[in-house]
Amino acid sequence: MPTSYDSQHISDFRQKSQQFLCVRFVLEHDVLQKILESHKDDMKAKTGHVFEGKKENKIHLSKVYTELFITEGDITDVYDEHEVLKMDRKEGNIVLTKGIAGIGKTFSVHKLILDWAEGKANQHVDCVFLLPFREMNLIKDDKEISLHELLLEFYPDLKEVENTKFYEEYKLVFIFDGLDESRLEVDFDWKLVKCVNARSSVDVLFTSLVRGKLLPSALIWVTSRPAAANLIPSEYVGLFTEVRGFTDQQKEDYFRKRIIDEAQASRIISHIRTSRSLYIMCHIPIFCWITASVLQDILVKNDEQDIPSTLTEMYIHFLLIQMKMKNQKYEKKQERDRTKLLSSNKGMILKLAKLAFEQLKEENVMFYETDLKACGIDESEESTGLCTEIFKEDSVLHERKVYYFIHLSVQEFLAALHVFLCYLKLDMDELKFFLENSRPNKKELLYVLLRKAIDKAKESDRGHFDLFLRFLLGISLQSNQKLLIGLLNETLENKNCINKTIQYIKQLQNNDKCPDKSINHFFCILELQDRTLYKQIMKYLKSESGQPKAVSNSNCSVLVYVLLMSGEVLDDFDPKMFNNTYAGCRRLVPAVRCCRKALYVESNENSFPPKILTSCHLARFSDCGLTEQCCETVASALQLEDCPMSELDLSHNYSIEAGVKALSAGLKSPHCHLETLRSASVPRGASGGPGTSVPPHLRCHLRRGCPDFSLWEDLPLRSTGWGVDVCGLSNTWIKS
Ligand SMILES: Nc1ncnc2c1ncn2[C@@H]1O[C@H](COP(=O)(O)OP(=O)(O)OP(=O)(O)O)[C@@H](O)[C@H]1O
């Protein structure tokens, strides 16, 4: 039995230790709050300013940031950047955002962090860490490091969080930007660490976080170009999103925001509207930035006849602007003559172009000093000459300097220039990469080279030659070669070769299996200044809705692309009017979301592309061979704010049985204004359409000649206030 002295002693001790813990807790809390405040300031400084092109061009993010169009998965839902962090993390749940080069992934990451740091959004989060892969690469491969130590490399002020409850009790967000740039070996079957102080390689720390084994309650956001996005197995991803760039309205907002002179902004916008490929390309923000720089320069000089209308022309002008700035800065010369500018910088451009191609072949976006030397560029040249204008130099972790072109598209442009120059010099060794064993004669060489480059780009699932190809085709045009005189000595008259190349692409385009390739081929044709396909697509879109149009499967993808990026809306959307095959209809499903844009469209007679119809009320998906995935796309369109769709026909699509759950989520949405839903699972004919078979239970119903109501009776529709109204070959559900 304890004595009274003992129990008094114990109770005093308890009281004191509780007081001590309390004091410690308060002190710890105060210390952590201070650290978090200073971390927020640090993050504001890191993300508040953007450097576009050069370090000197520092500008506040809010001055240029324009809203982006972000969707869930492959065009299935629209997401606001801030919603990314609303998700509650279940085991292994991360957000993975993909988007092509220059589409605005890093910008959206910075915007989200800035809004958080300024107290405007996501205030349930205590601390956000930005860990760009580009900078993580600078940590030596063989270095064993703990997560805490890794964070200290980026945020040294966090030293004092060690031995506190910071990692366990605070809501943390880790943003890993640019997975595609990672030189880490990301292997998800490899080792794991579970503790913030356990040392391991950086890739193991990353995979452990993604798998939810390390800091399971933290939120993880990873961004990547599409090609590298599948490095993360989908089972670890809770939410896929895609940055799709600017819609038409957002493009205009961008130029009006960035160009303060309103009259100049209007001139630039109206010029872009008149050029098809420029207008479409401007959904990519980096391209808007290059366009704004080039057109401002041209308009200041009043050289309107010089205004570029294709991607290649734009990049040639951009190169000229870079030369001019370099001359002004380092040589204090005001050289305006294009030919003289190019010829005086020829040596350097050629070396950079070689570097660009060598690294593109290896799929590298970052290079070290040794890579520069291998192309004859030495450091002194780099620090006093042209490279500083084209390269960014990074030495964040003070271990190694890395270089990269100000944007991948600039690298792709220079790489294409290199290949074209090799063709002019008949440097067959350099061209072997494309030509392999073929040995065409001189007359046929350019056509064979272009054809092989087209094939190479088509074969690459990762699409890393797509833009390069567009530049190579562009530079092959005589009109563009004229702009490059000074670098080139003469131009080539090659109409025949260009026509053959256009035919070759069109022929491939007819059989494209993948929507991305169809779209790239469409752009290639535009880059060669052939507008026939574009005109045809616009004709389909403008023609009367009740008329069948026989659009090929590939062109269905192009049509949806043009439609979505234009912000146009359809009144009565019937995919079968465009293409009567299941495969074609499926490619058209994403067009349902055009309804969303009814809100944004203002009627303007002169707008480009021309306005088509006013709003989408009726979507006819009867007998389109819809899959479960298509249902999800339709369902999420129904959840979009102010979706005006009032009638939806999904009858005769037996495979949507599997998508019924997804669909009901759309129908339950407070934004869904649907009044009539036509359903029933009777497919086209007994065969059920190409390459499909009718499920046994449906076959039985078909024989009896009546639809299978049981499938739809099970729908959780009744609970959402829907009831079957008409019984016939298709059920009609009416919102009660
Ligand atoms: N929302 C935006 N508002 C204004 N400008 C933008 C926006 N998003 C991107 N930009 C412009 O495009 C450029 C490239 O954007 P960003 O670096 O975010 O692209 P990214 O998708 O991360 O590309 P990459 O995959 O090549 O790293 C920016 O430097 C900026 O000029």
TrEMBL record:
Its main location: cytoplasm. The keyword Transferase does not apply. SMART domains: FISNA. It is found in: Cytoplasm. GO terms for molecular function: ATP binding. Keywords: ATP-binding, Cytoplasm, Leucine-rich repeat, Nucleotide-binding, Repeat. PANTHER family: NACHT, LRR AND CARD DOMAINS-CONTAINING. This is Si:dkey-156m2.3. It comes from Sinocyclocheilus grahami (Dianchi golden-line fish).
